[in-house]
Design a protein that fits this description.
Elements (H helix, E strand, L loop, with lengths): L1 H14 L2 E6 L7 E11 L2 E6 L6 E4 L3 E3 L29 H4 L18 E6 L1 H13 L4 H4 L5 E6 L12 E3 L5 E8 L3 E7 L5 E6 L1 H10 L7 E2 L17
Antiparallel strand pairs: 1-2, 1-5, 2-3, 3-4, 6-7, 8-9, 9-10, 10-11, 11-12
Amino acid sequence: MTDSVARRLTEASETGEVLIVAYDGGLEPGTLRQIYVIAVSGDRARVREANEQGPRTYLIDRISLVTDTTGYDWKHRSEAPKAKKGRRRAQDLEPAKLFRYWAYAVEPHHWPIFGIALREYINPERTKIARNLAALSGTPPGDVSRIAIRDRLWTRPQQPIDVCEGDLFWARDRSSAIEVVAVRDTIEIHIVTRDPRRRFAYLLTEAQFTHCLEHGEVEEELRIPPALSYSDTLRFLITQP
Protein backbone atom coordinates (compact mmCIF):
# COMPACT_ATOMS: atom_id res chain seq x y z
CA MET A 1 0.00 0.00 0.00
CA THR A 2 2.78 2.44 0.95
CA ASP A 3 4.62 1.76 -2.33
CA SER A 4 1.51 2.47 -4.39
CA VAL A 5 0.88 5.69 -2.47
CA ALA A 6 4.50 6.74 -3.00
CA ARG A 7 4.19 6.10 -6.75
CA ARG A 8 0.98 8.11 -6.92
CA LEU A 9 2.57 11.00 -5.03
CA THR A 10 5.60 10.93 -7.32
CA GLU A 11 3.34 11.08 -10.37
CA ALA A 12 1.48 14.04 -8.90
CA SER A 13 4.75 15.87 -8.21
CA GLU A 14 5.64 15.51 -11.88
CA THR A 15 2.25 16.44 -13.34
CA GLY A 16 1.17 19.08 -10.83
CA GLU A 17 -2.04 17.21 -10.10
CA VAL A 18 -3.93 18.18 -6.94
CA LEU A 19 -4.66 15.18 -4.72
CA ILE A 20 -7.25 14.65 -2.02
CA VAL A 21 -5.80 12.67 0.88
CA ALA A 22 -6.56 11.81 4.48
CA TYR A 23 -3.52 12.30 6.68
CA ASP A 24 -3.22 10.57 10.05
CA GLY A 25 -1.08 13.26 11.63
CA GLY A 26 -1.02 16.88 12.70
CA LEU A 27 -3.63 18.58 14.87
CA GLU A 28 -6.54 17.16 12.88
CA PRO A 29 -5.58 13.55 12.13
CA GLY A 30 -7.76 11.62 9.70
CA THR A 31 -9.20 14.70 8.05
CA LEU A 32 -9.15 15.40 4.33
CA ARG A 33 -6.73 17.82 2.72
CA GLN A 34 -6.09 19.01 -0.82
CA ILE A 35 -2.37 18.81 -1.45
CA TYR A 36 0.15 19.76 -4.10
CA VAL A 37 3.10 17.37 -4.02
CA ILE A 38 6.47 19.13 -4.17
CA ALA A 39 8.80 16.14 -3.85
CA VAL A 40 8.97 12.55 -2.59
CA SER A 41 12.05 11.28 -0.77
CA GLY A 42 12.25 7.95 1.03
CA ASP A 43 9.38 7.60 3.48
CA ARG A 44 8.43 11.29 3.33
CA ALA A 45 6.64 13.60 0.95
CA ARG A 46 7.04 17.37 0.82
CA VAL A 47 3.62 18.88 0.13
CA ARG A 48 1.74 22.14 0.20
CA GLU A 49 -1.81 22.09 1.53
CA ALA A 50 -4.47 24.18 -0.18
CA ASN A 51 -4.84 27.59 1.51
CA GLU A 52 -1.69 27.07 3.60
CA GLN A 53 1.37 29.25 3.11
CA GLY A 54 4.30 27.03 3.96
CA PRO A 55 5.20 23.52 2.80
CA ARG A 56 4.78 20.52 5.08
CA THR A 57 6.39 17.12 5.40
CA TYR A 58 4.08 14.09 5.44
CA LEU A 59 5.04 10.56 6.42
CA ILE A 60 3.92 8.44 3.48
CA ASP A 61 2.70 5.55 5.63
CA ARG A 62 0.17 7.92 7.23
CA ILE A 63 -1.29 9.08 3.90
CA SER A 64 -4.46 7.58 2.45
CA LEU A 65 -5.50 8.49 -1.08
CA VAL A 66 -9.21 9.31 -1.14
CA THR A 67 -11.57 9.08 -4.08
CA ASP A 68 -14.86 8.93 -2.17
CA THR A 69 -15.00 11.70 0.44
CA THR A 70 -18.22 10.47 2.05
CA GLY A 71 -17.86 10.13 5.81
CA TYR A 72 -14.73 12.28 6.09
CA ASP A 73 -14.31 15.69 7.70
CA TRP A 74 -12.25 18.33 5.92
CA LYS A 75 -9.26 19.85 7.64
CA HIS A 76 -10.21 23.21 9.12
CA ARG A 77 -7.83 25.38 7.11
CA SER A 78 -8.00 23.51 3.81
CA GLU A 79 -11.29 24.22 2.11
CA ALA A 80 -13.04 21.35 0.42
CA PRO A 81 -13.80 21.81 -3.29
CA LYS A 82 -17.58 22.25 -3.67
CA ALA A 83 -18.13 20.70 -0.26
CA LYS A 84 -19.12 21.90 3.14
CA LYS A 85 -16.42 21.68 5.76
CA GLY A 86 -17.18 19.13 8.44
CA ARG A 87 -16.76 19.65 12.15
CA ARG A 88 -14.69 17.49 14.42
CA ARG A 89 -16.79 15.75 17.04
CA ALA A 90 -15.53 16.40 20.55
CA GLN A 91 -15.53 12.72 21.46
CA ASP A 92 -13.15 11.96 18.59
CA LEU A 93 -10.36 13.96 20.24
CA GLU A 94 -7.81 12.13 22.38
CA PRO A 95 -5.01 14.62 23.15
CA ALA A 96 -2.45 12.05 24.30
CA LYS A 97 -2.78 10.18 20.99
CA LEU A 98 -2.94 13.40 19.00
CA PHE A 99 0.60 14.42 19.98
CA ARG A 100 2.08 10.94 20.45
CA TYR A 101 4.37 11.02 17.41
CA TRP A 102 5.37 14.68 17.47
CA ALA A 103 9.10 15.34 17.44
CA TYR A 104 8.81 17.71 20.40
CA ALA A 105 6.78 16.58 23.39
CA VAL A 106 3.47 18.39 23.84
CA GLU A 107 2.67 17.77 27.50
CA PRO A 108 -0.78 18.14 29.12
CA HIS A 109 0.12 21.62 30.38
CA HIS A 110 0.71 22.60 26.72
CA TRP A 111 -2.71 21.45 25.52
CA PRO A 112 -4.48 24.80 26.15
CA ILE A 113 -2.00 26.40 23.73
CA PHE A 114 -3.77 24.50 20.96
CA GLY A 115 -7.25 25.25 22.30
CA ILE A 116 -7.68 21.81 23.83
CA ALA A 117 -9.84 21.81 26.94
CA LEU A 118 -12.07 19.46 28.90
CA ARG A 119 -15.68 20.62 28.56
CA GLU A 120 -19.02 19.46 29.91
CA TYR A 121 -21.86 18.75 27.50
CA ILE A 122 -25.41 17.62 28.13
CA ASN A 123 -25.94 14.13 26.72
CA PRO A 124 -29.40 14.44 25.09
CA GLU A 125 -30.15 10.71 24.91
CA ARG A 126 -29.20 9.92 28.51
CA THR A 127 -30.89 13.10 29.74
CA LYS A 128 -34.13 12.15 27.96
CA ILE A 129 -34.10 8.67 29.55
CA ALA A 130 -33.41 10.11 33.01
CA ARG A 131 -36.22 12.64 32.68
CA ASN A 132 -38.68 9.99 31.49
CA LEU A 133 -37.82 7.75 34.44
CA ALA A 134 -38.16 10.67 36.85
CA ALA A 135 -41.56 11.61 35.41
CA LEU A 136 -42.77 8.00 35.70
CA SER A 137 -41.72 7.95 39.35
CA GLY A 138 -43.86 11.01 40.10
CA THR A 139 -41.17 13.70 40.16
CA PRO A 140 -42.74 17.18 39.78
CA PRO A 141 -42.46 18.55 36.20
CA GLY A 142 -40.36 21.51 37.35
CA ASP A 143 -37.77 19.18 38.86
CA VAL A 144 -37.85 16.87 35.83
CA SER A 145 -36.94 19.74 33.51
CA ARG A 146 -33.85 20.49 35.60
CA ILE A 147 -32.43 16.97 35.23
CA ALA A 148 -29.37 16.89 32.95
CA ILE A 149 -26.85 14.12 32.36
CA ARG A 150 -23.49 15.56 31.36
CA ASP A 151 -20.46 14.11 29.62
CA ARG A 152 -16.94 15.49 29.96
CA LEU A 153 -15.25 15.57 26.58
CA TRP A 154 -12.03 16.95 25.15
CA THR A 155 -12.67 19.66 22.58
CA ARG A 156 -10.55 21.77 20.32
CA PRO A 157 -12.34 24.86 18.99
CA GLN A 158 -11.07 26.09 15.65
CA GLN A 159 -8.93 29.02 16.75
CA PRO A 160 -5.36 30.35 16.52
CA ILE A 161 -2.84 28.77 18.84
CA ASP A 162 -2.23 30.65 22.08
CA VAL A 163 1.52 30.30 22.48
CA CYS A 164 3.20 32.59 25.02
CA GLU A 165 6.68 33.89 25.71
CA GLY A 166 8.52 31.39 27.88
CA ASP A 167 6.77 28.25 26.60
CA LEU A 168 9.28 25.41 26.36
CA PHE A 169 9.05 22.17 24.38
CA TRP A 170 11.60 19.39 24.82
CA ALA A 171 12.63 17.01 22.05
CA ARG A 172 11.65 13.41 22.71
CA ASP A 173 15.30 12.43 23.19
CA ARG A 174 16.00 15.58 25.28
CA SER A 175 18.76 16.55 22.85
CA SER A 176 17.27 20.00 22.26
CA ALA A 177 14.42 22.26 23.26
CA ILE A 178 12.30 24.90 21.57
CA GLU A 179 11.99 28.07 23.62
CA VAL A 180 9.37 30.66 22.67
CA VAL A 181 11.16 33.98 23.05
CA ALA A 182 8.61 36.45 21.68
CA VAL A 183 5.15 36.50 20.10
CA ARG A 184 4.45 39.35 17.70
CA ASP A 185 3.12 39.13 14.14
CA THR A 186 5.49 36.18 13.98
CA ILE A 187 6.76 33.82 16.67
CA GLU A 188 10.42 34.00 17.62
CA ILE A 189 11.72 30.64 18.77
CA HIS A 190 15.18 29.54 19.81
CA ILE A 191 16.28 25.97 19.36
CA VAL A 192 18.61 25.30 22.26
CA THR A 193 21.00 22.36 22.25
CA ARG A 194 23.07 20.79 25.00
CA ASP A 195 25.96 22.94 23.83
CA PRO A 196 25.33 26.38 25.41
CA ARG A 197 27.23 28.00 22.56
CA ARG A 198 24.70 26.81 20.00
CA ARG A 199 21.38 28.67 20.10
CA PHE A 200 19.53 29.01 16.79
CA ALA A 201 16.86 31.69 16.36
CA TYR A 202 13.93 31.63 13.91
CA LEU A 203 10.91 33.79 13.08
CA LEU A 204 7.91 31.58 12.24
CA THR A 205 4.24 31.81 11.43
CA GLU A 206 1.80 29.76 13.52
CA ALA A 207 1.70 27.08 10.83
CA GLN A 208 5.50 26.92 10.62
CA PHE A 209 5.78 26.76 14.42
CA THR A 210 3.31 23.86 14.61
CA HIS A 211 5.13 22.09 11.78
CA CYS A 212 8.44 22.47 13.63
CA LEU A 213 6.99 20.95 16.79
CA GLU A 214 5.47 18.03 14.93
CA HIS A 215 8.28 17.15 12.53
CA GLY A 216 11.35 18.56 14.25
CA GLU A 217 12.42 20.51 11.20
CA VAL A 218 12.39 24.14 10.15
CA GLU A 219 13.42 25.89 6.94
CA GLU A 220 16.97 27.26 7.20
CA GLU A 221 15.86 30.42 5.39
CA LEU A 222 13.70 31.30 8.41
CA ARG A 223 16.72 31.53 10.68
CA ILE A 224 17.64 35.02 11.89
CA PRO A 225 20.84 36.72 13.11
CA PRO A 226 21.12 38.22 16.62
CA ALA A 227 20.31 41.71 15.37
CA LEU A 228 16.79 40.68 14.31
CA SER A 229 15.87 39.10 17.64
CA TYR A 230 13.10 40.68 19.71
CA SER A 231 15.04 39.86 22.89
CA ASP A 232 17.55 42.42 24.11
CA THR A 233 19.23 39.86 26.37
CA LEU A 234 19.07 36.52 24.59
CA ARG A 235 20.24 37.98 21.29
CA PHE A 236 23.81 37.91 22.61
CA LEU A 237 23.59 34.11 22.89
CA ILE A 238 22.28 33.50 19.36
CA THR A 239 24.55 31.67 16.93
CA GLN A 240 25.12 33.60 13.71
CA PRO A 241 23.55 31.99 10.60
